[in-house]
Amino acid sequence: MFKVIIIEDEPLARSKLKRLLMDLSDEINITAELSSVAEVSAWLAQPNEVDLIFSDIELSDGNVFQSYQQQPPPCPVIFITAYDDFMLKAFDNFGIGYLLKPYSSDKLQQAWHKFRQLSRQPDTEPLLVNQLQQLLQTLPAPKTSYTSRLAIRQQQQIYFLQVADIVYIQADGSLIMAFDEQGKRHYLPYNSLQAVEAVLDPERFFRINRSEMVQSQHIVRLERYCKNTLTLYLANNVQLKTSQSRTGDFNRWLGI
């Protein structure tokens, strides 16, 4: 019997994973179900006997890598996430599989088969890891990769917002909202503008004040509002203003 744990904050996603695991030919015992970074950290702090972890990445209270960097997981991890930006980091955190939501039963079975192959040959795993690390060291440093779409959770579904369609992003406390050309509001899965800035291309997006970011291609025109402050006219007749402290950097970002 294989002991596994599930790290997932969406009840529907957790139910789907449990159902698919029960369909596998091997006998599986789900020993724990965790839904937050806090729960993961508490679990990792205790001695645990487990064979495999199925882990989401972006949880309700943060990124699960926060926990794995403080305390490495005691076994291999198959990551299941709606984001395609964390693949390299996943394999640097004991990842042996990376499934993008929505995934199929076949994809899960392939990931499980990979785990079973590794579990049959435990002595070869350190050698494979060492060979992979040596290969990565010979490669040139990768260019920073920025996301081209964002996964938006809405009630019982997840849809994808193309980054190119975002006109501006606005923060209201811990609520982060993106607005498209039609003026539609999309609630982003982040709790600060700093977190959004980390995944968006800084050549395309600029933070014009404490609570708003704009995408350059949607800026229609600029007008001076007062000394050291500009009014930005965006698509759909949206008007935003730069803060005095950001206007100079904004002009340099635009090359004017």
UniProtKB/TrEMBL annotation:
Keyword Electron transport appears in the UniProt entry: no
Gene3D superfamilies, per database record: 3.40.50.2300, LytTr DNA-binding domain
InterPro entries linked to this entry: CheY-like_superfamily, LytR-like, LytTR_DNA-bd_dom, Sig_transdc_resp-reg_receiver
PROSITE patterns in UniProt: HTH_LYTTR, RESPONSE_REGULATORY
Domain Response regulatory: 3-116
GO-annotated molecular function: DNA binding
In-chain residues carrying the UniProt-annotated modification 4-aspartylphosphate: 56
Entry keywords, A to Z: DNA-binding, Phosphoprotein, Two-component regulatory system
A UniProt-annotated Pfam family: LytTR
HTH LytTR-type domain sequence ranges: 150-256
Source superkingdom: Bacteria
UniProt entry tagged with the keyword Heme: no
Coiled-coil region: none
Family annotation (PANTHER family): STAGE 0 SPORULATION PROTEIN A HOMOLOG, TRANSCRIPTIONAL REGULATOR-RELATED
Protein name as it appears in the record: DNA-binding response regulator
Species of origin: Alishewanella longhuensis
